[in-house]
UniProtKB/TrEMBL annotation:
This is Aspartate aminotransferase. Keywords: Aminotransferase, Coiled coil, Pyridoxal phosphate, Transferase. It comes from Maritimibacter alkaliphilus HTCC2654. Gene3D superfamilies: Aspartate Aminotransferase, domain 1, Type I PLP-dependent aspartate aminotransferase-like (Major domain). One of its GO terms (cellular component) is cytosol.
Length: 394
């Protein structure tokens, strides 16, 4: 039977991870997969996570099943972090998921059940796995303009013009903050205009928020998602704890669905639980429990917020340092956008050939579309990268 299987297209980010690991050079620099690294190149377990895990080891008395939708305390704590009361409880259905990817997959399955004809609109560019999941689910997909390659900022008029063509019942994937892969984000005024447009079109926003706290701070990064979900009758939110709690391998995420009223919430909730049961039954609990313990314990929460701010400020410092290093080498401000972008990623705007040159000659690994993980840098490797960018003629 297996002879009927076809080879699948490789995920570019995952393939790059393997290639980097196999490169024997000591001087190699990994700016590929979106993982935070400290100045020594390690991805640390966050202090509050370690402390919560220690407590859990002592206190946990059972590994028996939780609930199909995940531990209700986790659902409450994480939805609180993202929405902070923007949506009434009577309208909010939610179920824990194995990571942000699980939440996106489940959100699209829910849409497919509700409207098999829905077209899924995605920013051009977007996270490659969005495209891959949509294709896997055999859903229709249309890109909307998002990034202006010349200014390296959001092409907002292009975005609005393209979203003017969405139909009622279509789904529009928006990045809640820290756009992946570009680093260019909507401002609040633009969030309001998008919200108004989707409301007028009766389209459903699906907000992917995987980097809350990595851009302008925990609160600022959630303002867009809070505005859109509190304004429109229906929306979906896929939240991930992989990055902001550093619990990547624990697969910790949440799918939230906002309904117009409590009756529809009950049906939606039941569908979310049903989907969990079909796909994996109970969602993973360890990461979720640790996240909930941190969010609900004032001391652990303060410790976590402090470390998250350190991480965020480190990334901002690296952004400024890189923009300045390039300014010094080129005598121009054309890389100033690197200090303006937010989150882990920036799209540099290099050609695939230039990306290849940087890899072959300088051991710098970035995704082929020239997405760089800023959090993969440290103050010493910034200069190596700046030299490589100039040498490759970007
Ligand atoms: C990334 O974009 O690098 C991360 O979200 C990791 C992943 O799963 O692709």
């Amino acid at each position: 039977m297996f002879e009927h299987l076809n080879a699948q297209a490789q995920d570019k980010i995952m393939a790059l991870m393997v290639e980097y690991r196999e490169d024997p050079r000591d001087t190699k620099v990994d700016l590929g997969v979106g993982v935070y690294k400290d100045p020594t190149g390690n991805t640390p377990v966050m202090r509050a996570v370690k402390a919560a895990e220690k407590q859990l080891l002592e206190k946990e008395t059972t590994k028996s099943y939780t609930a199909l939708g995940g531990d209700p305390a986790f659902v409450k704590a994480l939805s609180g972090l993202v929405l902070n009361g923007a949506v009434e409880e009577g309208r909010l259905a939610a179920a824990a998921q194995p990571g942000g990817t699980g939440a996106i997959h489940q959100a699209l399955e829910l849409v497919k059940m509700a409207n098999p004809d829905a077209t899924v609109w995605v920013s051009d560019p977007t996270w490659p796995n969005h495209l891959s999941i949509i294709k896997h689910l055999k859903m229709k997909m249309t890109p909307y303009r998002y990034f202006d390659n010349d200014t390296r900022a959001v092409d907002f008029s292009g975005m609005m013009a393209d979203l003017g063509n969405v139909a009622a019942g279509d789904v529009v994937i928006l990045h809640g903050c820290c756009h992946n892969p570009t680093g260019a984000n909507l401002n609040m005024e633009q969030w309001k205009e998008v919200t108004e447009l989707l409301g007028a079109k009766q389209a459903l926003p699906l907000i992917d928020i995987a980097y809350q706290g990595f851009g302008d701070g925990l609160e600022a990064d959630a303002l867009g998602v809070r505005h859109i979900t509190s304004t429109l009758p229906e929306s979906l939110i896929a939240a991930s704890c992989s990055k902001n709690f550093g619990v990547y391998r624990e697969r910790t995420g949440l799918l939230m669905a906002v309904s117009p009223d409590d009756k529809m919430k009950a049906v939606t909730q039941q569908n979310l639980t049903h989907l969990n049961r079909q796909n994996f039954s109970f969602p993973p609990d360890h990461g979720a429990r640790v996240v909930q313990m941190i969010l609900d314990d004032p001391a652990l929460r303060t410790e976590w917020e402090t470390e998250l701010e350190e991480v965020r400020n480190t990334m901002l410092g690296l952004r400024t340092q890189l923009a300045e290093a390039l300014q010094a080498r080129t005598g121009s401000d054309r890389f100033g956008f690197l200090a303006e972008h937010r989150g882990m990623f920036s799209r540099l705007g290099a050609t695939p050939e230039q990306v290849e040159t940087m890899k072959e000659k300088h051991g710098i690994y970035m995704v082929g579309d020239s997405r760089m993980n800023i959090a993969g840098l440290n103050k010493d490797t910034v200069d190596i990268l700046a030299d490589a960018i100039v040498d490759a003629g970007v």
